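Box S2. Input/output pair 1.
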Amino acid sequence: MVLPIVSSVLSAAPVGAELAINLPPPASLVARDIHDLHSLILWIILGIVIVVFVPMGIALIRHRKSLGHPPARFHDNRTLEIAWTAVPTLILIAMAWPATRLVVAMKDAAREDLTIKVTGHQWKWEYEYFGEGVRFMSNTSTPREQIEGTQPKGEHYLLEVDRPLVVPAGKKIRLVTTASDVIHSWAVPALGIKQDAIPGFIRETWFRAETPGTYRGQCTELCGVGHGFMPVVVNVVTDTQFASWMHEQKELAAAAAANAAKTYALDDLKVMGEKVYAANCLVCHQANGMGIPNVFPALAGSKLATGDKAAHIDIVLNGKINTAMAAFGKQLSDLDLAAVITYERNTWGNRTGDAVQPADVAARRK
């Protein structure tokens, strides 16, 4: 009876799913220590099962009442009582000692080589490199066609982003985490990292990736309807590659600042705005702009997207209190905000003809 059930469960497992019980290969010293502690605890548990539960099961089966075995009668045994108190205590110490040392090591974020602020938003990550003037948002890049099932799932389905976190190999990276709305959790198992990001609090952790490569994780705290679309990708590169990447990011930031001062045509803003909408608004308001009834309002034909332009800019900038509408003023640039607002006001049958410029957004910032 058991074998057919197991067979049916395995056959129903998704193609490509990893039916494994162990942790992913460690890519940092902390992750290796976690892996070793995990193995140690498993061996201890196996020993307890063999020494305690197996004999108990045999005794229950072989000495049951139905076979005519009379119940045993015995009195207190001080030696036995001391033994079954002392032995579990020693086992607990053997488990607690390495676990405590590991937790202390995981919290020691001093003497770092680089500090990065990680801010969780619904549903994306923001990375800011302290002292470098580099800040960007990281959104899932899994195509909507894969999510909606009209295309085959990719190799890194829901574990891919448009802009990964980039760090140098062999350097101690200190992360300070927080959130702008609800509790998120930044986790990359291969690096031994899982740190909650809590609104109003600053939490810190660290990692040191030993070899270059790409390491993937995701938000591990249920944070809303888009929780499953909040991956983490870390690209570990050489020192030379990191210096080149950092220089490129600074050039991109300077170019973005220059572009924000320009005036754009309506069609150009709509093209840019469609990409911004897909990365930041689509989960709630949907690709057709109809939202989710009784949960997220529609933008198609709405008074907001077809009414006063300044009011539309204000709500996107500052959000709406006591609703799921987040404030995007600190998340997106003036150009991105101008583009997405223009897109919303001129799509799905909305035809206001408004071309919202970055200067319009900058003028409404509080």
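Box S3. Input/output pair 2.
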Amino acid sequence: MEKEKVPSAIITLTAGIVITLVSLWVGQNHGLMPEQVSEQAPLVDNFFDVMMTIGTALFLVVEGAIVIAMIRFRRRKGDDTDAEPIIGNLPLEAFWTAIPAIIVIGLGIYSVEVYRDMGGFEPAHHHVAKADTPAHIASMPGSAMAAPLVADTEGMESDQAVAPKGAKYGFGAAPQREGQTADLVVNVTGLQFAWIFNYADSGVVAGELHVPIGKDVQLNLSAQDVIHSFWVPQFRLKQDAIPGQETELRFVATKTGTYPVVCAELCGGYHGAMRTQLIVHTPEEYDAWLEENRIAQQQNPNQTVAVNPADLSESEFLEPYAANLGVDEKTLTQLHSMHES
């Protein structure tokens, strides 16, 4: 008795259900993103989850079709005949052209919605904190390198230390905060190869970014030399710092902790070391940190860490990294001697 074949429609439907379920599970459980610590992070993650779901489905369909074709249409032993000539299939070609087009258009619309919800289309409500204290940079633990700001004879920042002012753009206030002044404004300067954070309203300058949890924070970004990119992965925020072009980031931290700040734009030979930290405090801890640094910098107004990585020898630059890796000074010297010879 001949076996009854399962209708192809049933097979296709079953495969579609399986692929859909697997794709949805992967889209929600991929574990590829770091923790969320800002109000903006869920917007980006939801978009990424959708892309992972669609990408998984497309992968399964394409690779599944390849595997099925390899098995079903493989050359049988002893079969030396020519394959059946296939000229084309207009409905199939239209289908596999239309589906990717719909997906790309849909993702494009979704990405614009995310950008809008993060305040990308709102005017940048650019509030610049005015410096009223001498330019100084305190000790900068966690910074790639502490670099100096140039100060004039009266102790104020000179024009040499500030990028020329131009038009402003970037992520402004989110719609629910439109027109509101940020709770905290920090002027951020990127330079080879460090980030400088100026809390000018309080006279504090640091090599790490400290913010209070739950407060609306505005970063005014500028660059002193080349293009840098201010990136905090856990916050899902990234914005270029451009010479002569002010940009802005605005965010609200939702979890205390210490998070890496990375330069995501190749900016020179020591680009990989241009890292620092964003530290989220409770309001009480933040106020204590700010007051402690304000007093310390008032007592030492000329305290400056003037180190430019480009001026260091290889041994001097690598020394702190070698210590962290357990390489002693003698071994480091030997390695450099071998390299020079």
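Caption for Box S3: The longest helix spans residues 41-72. The longest strand covers residues 184-191.
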